[in-house]
Write a structure and sequence with these properties.
Number of helices: 8
Number of strands: 7
Structural class: alpha/beta
Number of domains: 4
Shape: elongated
Strand order of the largest sheet: 5-4-6-7
Helix content: 25-40%
Oligomer: single chain
Length: 315
């Protein structure tokens, strides 16, 4: 709710006259005629009347004062509204004061990329940014991204799927957009996410009346959706940046399938390695996302029949 405006002075005519008459016996005891017909009382009332008008003016904010304040807030390029509605102009300027125009914190960088950047003319024709993550104290565009980099900040953006040339134009445009908005002593970098390729393997036993191939296909679709960078994760708004991958999550995802009776022997492996992930999962850095590149599922049907299935997913 808005802060109520203070009343700078609430004295009225009666207060002023009463205070003045109360001082007469102290300051001038020989003045004993305090009737309204006395010339001195007439003068006191006249001055009280003039003072009350002055006090009323003190508590008022004239349109000219409002315009001057708006010019101070809006800068030299601000001009009064054509409609002359100063109340609406005041509301607009106060709302503009809450807009973040500079980047001081990681949240500021993410807000500017997510909210302000799409409205900029430079964003026209470029890929839309779907997700953004700011990593402080790191130069992810350097030769050693894992090394601490004081006074550096990296903005990781995940754009809509598109060509490599388009992503390069996007990161360059975002770097130029953030440059005048950063703190002078900060060096900023705009990069794309780094992906950690993983392989999921599991044994799946479908219900007796379910075609094993259908159960395996359903399990594959569920895993692809869960690890998707745009619609995956528990919240279904994309796999979170830097969130580790755990075998227990695979159990939870596959057990939601209405076609699977039970799941066994889940193995989660970082691509390019032979070792299965430990119970604590595959660790990710703050700027990394998982990418499912291979799924190995073993389905078990009636009479001991097995249905091995392997999918190589595009990167």
């Amino acid at each position: 709710m808005p802060i109520p405006l203070p009343n700078l002075d609430d004295h009225d005519f009666d207060d002023l006259v009463g205070e003045a008459r109360a001082l007469i016996p102290v300051l001038l005891p020989e003045w004993t005629d305090h009737n309204p017909a006395d010339p001195g009382i007439v003068l006191v009332e006249l001055l009280a009347w003039l003072t009350e008008m002055q006090l009323y003016q003190v508590d008022q904010l004239s349109p000219s004062h409002t315009l001057n304040f708006l010019r101070l807030l809006g800068g030299p390029e601000w001009s009064p509204p054509d409609t002359g509605d100063l109340d609406a102009a005041v509301r607009q300027r106060v709302a503009a004061l809450h807009e973040r125009e500079r980047a001081a914190t990681t949240d500021d960088y993410e807000y500017l990329v997510r909210t302000t950047w799409p409205q900029e003319p430079e964003a026209t024709g470029l890929l839309r940014v779907r997700r953004v993550r700011c990593v402080p104290g790191r130069n992810l565009a350097g030769t050693d991204p894992a090394a601490p980099a004081p006074a550096h900040i990296s903005v990781v953006v995940l754009p809509e799927p598109g060509g490599a040339a388009d992503t390069g134009a996007l990161t360059a445009a975002l770097h130029a957009f953030l440059d005048p908005r950063r703190i002078l002593t900060v060096r900023h970098h705009v990069v794309l996410p780094e992906y950690v390729d993983i392989t999921v393997a599991a044994d799946l036993a479908p219900y007796a009346d379910v075609v094993p191939e259908d159960a395996l296909a359903d399990a594959l679709n569920r895993l692809r959706e869960y690890y998707d960078p745009f619609t995956g994760g528990d919240a279904r708004d994309g796999w979170p940046f830097g969130q580790d991958a755990h075998p227990s999550e695979v159990y939870a995802v596959l057990e939601q399938s209405p076609l699977a009776d039970h799941i066994e022997n889940v193995r989660l492996t970082r691509a390019g390695t032979d070792a299965d992930a430990a119970a604590d999962g595959i660790a990710l850095d703050a700027h990394q996302l998982v990418r499912l590149t291979r799924v190995d599922l073993m389905g078990y049907g009636n009479y001991g029949r097995t249905y091995p299935s392997t999918w190589e997913l595009p990167r």
